[in-house]
Structures are given as C-alpha cells and as structure tokens.
Amino acid sequence: MGLFQKRDMQRFIKILRFIFKRLFLMAVTIFILITLVFFTLSFMPVDPVSILCGPGATEESIKAVRKEFGLDDPAYIQYFRFLKNLIQGDLGFSWRSRQPVIVEIMSAIPYTVILAFAAMIIATLLGIITGIISAKKQFSLIDNISMGISLIGVSTPIFILALIFIYIFAYRLGWFPTSGSETLSHLILPSVCLGLFVAASIARLVRASMLDVLRQDYIRTARAKGLSELTVVFKHAFRNALIPILTIVGMQFGLLFGGSVITETVFAWPGLGRLIITSINFKDAPVLQGGVMFFAGGFTLINLIMDIFYQFIDPRIKIK
Amino acid sequence: MEGYLRALFKNRISILSLIIILFVIGLAVFGPYFEKHDPLETHMAKMLRPPTAEFPFGTDALGRCVASRIIYGARTTLLAGLVAIAIGAVLGTFLGLVSGFYVGKVDNLIMRGLDVLLAFPYFLLAVVIVAALGPSLNSIMIAIGIWEMPYYARLVRGSVLSIKEKEYVEAARMVGEKDSSILMYYILPNCISPIIIMSTVYYAWAILMASTLSFLGLGVQPPAPEWGVMTAEGREYLLFAPYLLFFPALFVCLTASAFNFLGDALRDLLDPRLHMR
After folding, report:
1. Which residue of B has its CA nearest to A154?
2. C-alpha distances in angstroms, A159 versus A152, A263, B213, B247?
3. Would the pTM count as exceeding 0.80?
4. What is the CATH number of domain A105-313?
C-alpha cells in the first residue's frame, strides 16, 4: 500500500461528508438566528423617525425619511428586503451616523479579534497550568486555594473585575491607561481582565478532566514502570487529557465573546461588543441587528471549526 | 484523612455559604425595618461622605445613604433572580419533559430550537431580549429566564431519558396511564432534585446577569437602588470614593459566590454524576 491506505481514504471521505452536513446545519442555524433577531428587535420600543429627523422635523422630511428607510412597509416585506440586502452584504444604514452598518462593523471587528485573541492566550495558559497543578496535588492546600479562587472568579461579574483593575492599576498605580485603544498598553488591562474571567472556568474544568485521566490504568502502569512523575504527568496524562481540554477551551468562546461585550464597554475598547451596547443606548436598530448577527454568526462558525478540528485530532470520535 | 479534611473543609465552606445566603435574605426581608434612611432621600450637605457612624457605608454623589441602598438593592436583586429562574425552570422543565419523553421529531425540533438560543455567545441573547423589551426590571427578569431556559431543558431531558426506562414507568404504562399523567406523577417528581441542585447555581448566574445588565444601563433604571446600578454610579467617583464601588461589588460577589459554593457542595453531596458542568 502506498502512503494513503484505503482506510485513510474512507475516513477522509467520512470527514468531508461530516463537514458538509455541519456546514448545512450551521447555515440553517444562522438563518433561524437572523430571523429571530430581526423579529425580536422589531418589537424595540423606538420611533426611528424621531432619531433620524431629530425634533422639529417637517411633515415632508418625516415622510421622505420613512420612505427612504422603507418604514411604512409591513414587517414581512421589511424582512425579505433585509434578507435580500444581506445576501449582497448590505446591512442597511446606521440611524445614528448614517454610515453603512457593514462599515461600522468591519472597523470594529479587528479590535474584538485582538482582544479575544490576547485574552484567550492568557486564559488558556493560566487555566491549564492551574488546572493541572490542582489535579496533580488534589486535596492539597494549593488545590483548595486555587479552586476557591477560581470559584470566586466564576462568581465575580466581569464589570466588577474590570473596575477593580482600573482602580488598582490605572488610578492607584498609574501603570496603564483607563480606557482607549491607541497603544499596546491599552490592550493589557482589558485582555488580562477578560482572560482571568475565562481562566477561572477553564481551570475548574481542566482539573476535572486531568483527575479523570490520572485515575486511568495506563497511568498506574506508567508509574509502575518507574517513570518519573514529571514524565507521567506530562507525557502520559496531559497528552490524553489534551482532547477534553481542547474541547473545554473551545466551549469557552461563548464566555469569551459575551465577556468581551462588557470588557469593551468598561474600557471603551472600540470593538463589536461596545458597538452593540452603544447601539442599544442610541436605539440604533440596524447597527444592533448587524452587530448581534455578526457576533452570533462568528461564534457559530468557531464552534463548527472546533468540531471539525476534533475529527482530525482524535480518531476515536465516531462520525455520525 | 485528607479526604476527610476536604469534606470538612467543603462542609465549612458550605456552612459559611449558607450563613451568607441567610444573612442576605434576612437583609432583604427585615433590613428595611431597621434602616432609618430612605434609599432615595438625598442629603445635599453630606455628599460623598466616607463611611461614618451615621452612614455606615458612606454616602454617594447625591448624598444618599449607601447602606440603605444596599439593603433595598438586596430585595431587588434576590427577587429578580428568583423570578428569572422561575421563568427559566418552568419553561425549560416543560420543554425538557416533552423532548425527553417523545424521542424523535418533537425532540429534534425542540432541541434544535434550543440550540439556536445557545448559539448566542454567553449573555448576548439576554441583551437582544432586553433591547426589544426596553430596559426595565421586568425585561431583565424575562430575558434572564429565557436565557437560562435551554440549560434547564437539557438537564431535565437528560433525567427523563434515564427515568423513562425505569420499571415503574413501564408499569404505569402497562396499567394504561395517560402520557400526561406518567410525565406529571412518575417522571417529574424524580427530576426535581437535579432541578433544585442546579437552580442554586443558576440563581448565582441570574444574580450576576441581573447586576451586569443593570450596570450596562439595560436593566433596573436609576435612581432605583440596585447593586449593578450602584456600581455604575460609583464608577464616576472611583478615584475619590472607592467605597461606592466596594460595597455593591462586595455584595454581588459575596451573594453569587455563596450560591455557587453551595450549589457545588450540593452537587458533590447529592449527585456526583452532575459534577462539573
């Protein structure tokens, strides 16, 4: 047999079919999600005309604006028009800035990606290291303390963490700026804050799956062979715990994205999350709609990528 | 020995959590009868006072008593969380019961529908609902309830799947009981204990979410006393009056931690299978 065996080929085809099936399911999910968001937000208690025209607008300009934004059409017509425009990459115009929504979103996305990326690195490193040490030294003082701290971390809303950080590191120590996005030092407080928030969950879950692995027979065998504890933990246990750990890290993207909405708002970091909250405050429905759809759509996409990724790294996962 | 120590430690923690919970509940129920300051009354001559005998937690920028606002805020927060998890538990349990019992199309439809709700990252679903309903206490209670609904549904569905294979359910079916009464009298009672255990944790989530939404200006509206609102108000004076952040933040974290720790201990104690979400 050559480099590719028949078995490998069959597996490859299976994975391809799985990917297509998941892509289709994702498309359905995103479509339902968009529909849900559209109709939910159509209940928004807001009169767009008053935002668009400002107070003291003439009858004529009100009429013109209603026509321009198609506000007199029934909801389902507005919905189909929205879908049609969406396919062409047009999400409408912001009621506040009158800019295309897609432009506002596209200029916010890089900031969210940078913040999420930095926070995820911090969260993963910190969470995995704490989790492994806790599992290795189960029931020890270190374990109790780090699990206690992580449970408090899980119970601390991220805006409070952010404000404590601002108070200590910006106001008292003056090490970092309180808000903004101009330099790298602006990134540090928000990313550490968001990272810690997510690390707390990761640490707790990593500990559980490491404990699970450490109880397996092959670990006992490895120890019985007289391997050093370091080899046992990192070569035998950690490698086997890697897949559940990756799953755990993947599952935290929701927390990460949601948390970034709050972090961005507190630190005035001009990402997608802050855009969403500002658009609610200004009752800017088109931006809100577009922002939420991008956020949820991106999250669904990441979930899909993680799912496909597992197929490749773990041959034991059965493909349905 | 160490295991025993840990059990003791865990137990001590859960006792402490219970004390904190009872204290906060006591504060919410009886506090207003002992507090002499009105949470909305402003004392313009006594703005931004640090904690003193008259105002144990100090006064805010409008000279309002922080301690009394914390006490009345406890009422709002605890009640909002309770209504929210009640909404989530009732809707989620119903969907979970139905989808676990009728495997097949109905199950698929319900679970896929709930998957769409779970496709919103973390608290974005609540934000969308609040945006649609307008910012108020009622909207955040509804939003948090709907947000927690899929978690309840999954939990209940899992229990139903295992319970319905039990012999007594089979027996009930043989005797000719209707589906609805099997669900109500044979399956539901056996789902109650995981629901209650997880509700402790979901209650912590609800409290955190309520204060977060209120902090962002999407929930309870000022001047009403609520911990998240107070944090937002205190933020402006963080540099000069950090206690305006400290007290509401302390109460949010303390209450949520207590429920989280208690939920954790309950899960360990009553049902090791539910351990770690």
Report:
1. B257
2. 14, 7, 10, 14
3. yes
4. 1.10.3720.10
